[in-house]
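Recap quiz, item 2
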Amino acid sequence: AANRESSFSLEEYRRYGRQMTVPEVGISGQVMLKKSKILVVGAGGLGCPALLYLTGAGVGKIGIVDNDVVDTSNLHRQVLHTSENVGMLKCDSAKKYLNSLNPHVEIVTFPKRLSNDNIFNVFLSDKWDLILDCTDAPLTRYLINDAAVICGLTIVSASGVRADGQLAILNFQNFGPCYRCFYPKPPPPNSVLSCQDGGVIGPAIGVMGVLMASEAIKVICGSYTRENFKPFLNLYSAYPQQSLRTFKMRSKVPNCQVCSIDNDKRIITRSTIESNELNYSEWCGKVSYDVL
Amino acid sequence: AANRESSFSLEEYRRYGRQMTVPEVGISGQVMLKKSKILVVGAGGLGCPALLYLTGAGVGKIGIVDNDVVDTSNLHRQVLHTSENVGMLKCDSAKKYLNSLNPHVEIVTFPKRLSNDNIFNVFLSDKWDLILDCTDAPLTRYLINDAAVICGLTIVSASGVRADGQLAILNFQNFGPCYRCFYPKPPPPNSVLSCQDGGVIGPAIGVMGVLMASEAIKVICGSYTRENFKPFLNLYSAYPQQSLRTFKMRSKVPNCQVCSIDNDKRIITRSTIESNELNYSEWCGKVSYDVL
Amino acid sequence: MSRGGLDQNFNGIKTKQLTVQKESSPILFKDLINHIVENYISNKKDLETFIEEDTIRPGILVLINDTDWELEGKEDYELENGDLITFTSTLHGG
Amino acid sequence: MSRGGLDQNFNGIKTKQLTVQKESSPILFKDLINHIVENYISNKKDLETFIEEDTIRPGILVLINDTDWELEGKEDYELENGDLITFTSTLHGG
Ligand SMILES: [Zn+2]
Ligand SMILES: [Zn+2]
């Protein structure tokens, strides 16, 4: 598409000028942003702010995956949707606003819930440079992770509940650790870790979405390289004092079931997923489930 | 106004439910938010995200002070405005969106630039509970600080440039340190500290605005008390790794020119400001200026 | 001591100062695990969330000061006075 | 070492490890100031931004590890090996 050429119109120079003068982005970074394609899964508490800032920053193409409709109970934190759009598909509501924020960005929507059957279609629907995991169901995180690793895609992943959040870059250039390296095993169903509905403070999840946009810009602009990338996990907490801690994390785990360098250890593959051998079932409300 | 009563409609329960279940807010915090009135100075890079999350959270009344109009060069970071609103007053553009995000919040606008002559009118136009300083000119920060201290108002203050940001709570309950306690003297004019135009990355300034909204919620909901409040300064940096550091800061400075407990030391007063004895002149482009 | 969901296991306690005593030094991380299980986990279901095969469940991240315990020797890490230990699991919201 | 505008004074250097030597210990913060002025500030205008009446300009915040230097004795603070010193001024954007 014309909007992903490497030259800028005068209007684009004006629009991105303040950002291009920051050395960490520069004109070359702005070109990389324009040429980039980012797939954002989830247009909720994390996705709304991430989408706003990625669209503002001038990413060339953004895909939004969400089959949910806007509900009144979303609006305290999902600030890209409005009261007038209650009942509308979130991806449509988001697209409408984002188009008016920055018409240079191509927005495409996938009004579906990712599943074993459709995830490869979505992930391979274009040459995506990056996946943002802005979902709210832990088992979907395993599904997204597995498909992204298999497709060779880097993930910026965050989550949050109440007043706390986490952020990590996963499968960085097929070289950094993946979600399963960090969390080889989901918590048992119905445990306090899985099913509680803890509520969430708007700006606490909002801050995580904005931090994701920053990390996405850093990944696209080449701030991270195989040489300087160190696996990390950020923990944010709003109370008692707002804090963002950075933890140095393990590298890729040798016997990871999806990202192991050793072919024999990689028992999760496109075919185990598409054949439904691997069942990423609902997190809550079931006594048992079957996930690797 | 009806919307600041302490009871909630069913729609409001639905809207704020997820937030009220977080213990740090609770129903009592939601009532305090609804009863609160917050004045946001500046609807730019900091003001846009702060306004989005404060409106989402259900603050009773929000005032927006900004005499600027939306420019294309704002849109990469000022994500509450759209390309269609270029040329419109920022406070009007903001109000329009915020009304559709949450019709329960009363939004009032002050399309003026704060000056010695009008700041007390604005600050005393209602019983504001809190000031958010989202401005981008350092001398305005002194003016806002001085008037807020004189009016007995707490300030949540942030700023940012390039990929870095600062945040502090100032004059907390007339008891914490003020901006002049931290920065008794502005840098000399035309120094590298004052006039450079360093540019700014959208989500880097955006994150500061969201952090401001969190602090505002904490102040309004009573998370900070005179007993537990410790003066602090947060420093955010987007590179190389996103970090938010917290520094333990000095208490109120005994000989502060505006907030000293000692009457004789307090040489900045409403009358020295309104008589223009104190000249908060333009920061850049002047060889000399006269500010205490 | 704990954050992000797991504090439910410890009656909502987020940070707690612990004194672990043992007849012979050094005190290892596995001693801390025993100490926590014996003193702070009240029911069996919470135990299953936290412990598996006598160690921390693989779904829980253990962070010693600013570093993943996988990089620090896991159960055999020698605790030092003042170490900040963080347990976290995946958060489920977004 | 420096952040938020002030790094312009130091050729854009944000973090730098310094070795300050002195014949007699202790090494005080004022020795560090002299060391920086002598070795890292190249022109007079930058000097005026940073120094006033032989100490750090009142518009600049000095942070020693995680604490305002006002709480640490300012120029007379005794430096310890590994101390992280941050200089910051008010930022001017919003
Ligand atoms: Zn892996
Ligand atoms: Zn003061």
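The pocket of zinc ion (ligand 2) is lined by residues B 177-178, 180-181, 252-253, 256, 258-259 (CB under 6 Å).
The mean pLDDT of chain A is 91.
End of item.
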